[in-house]
Design a protein that fits this description.
- This protein has four helices and no strands.
- By secondary structure, the protein is mainly α.
- It has one domain.
- It is rod-shaped, with a radius of gyration of 25 Å.
Length: 70
C-alpha cells in the first residue's frame, strides 16, 4: 500500500491531512493493526482449536451406552 500511495497518489498529496484522507491509508492501517494484534477469537485457527478441544473432551469422557438401573 505504501508503494501504491507513493506511485499512484503522489500528485494528490499536499500534506499529512490529505495523506490520511486516502482510502488506501485506511487499508494500510487496518493491515498493520491485524498483523500486530492478530485476529484473536475471530481467527480460523482459534475456531479449529475450539473444535479439537471439544472432540478431545468427548473422546475422553464417552457417554455410557446403557443406563444402569438402580
Amino acid at each position: 500500500m505504501v508503494v501504491a500511495i507513493a506511485t499512484a497518489k503522489r500528485g494528490d498529496i499536499t500534506g499529512l491531512t490529505s495523506l490520511v484522507g486516502f482510502e488506501e491509508w485506511s487499508y494500510l492501517v487496518l493491515f498493520l493493526w491485524l498483523a500486530l494484534a492478530g485476529a484473536g477469537p475471530l481467527s480460523l485457527d482459534h475456531l479449529i482449536s475450539w473444535f479439537r478441544k471439544r472432540q478431545t473432551a468427548q473422546l475422553n469422557h464417552p457417554k455410557p451406552l446403557l443406563r444402569s438401573q438402580s
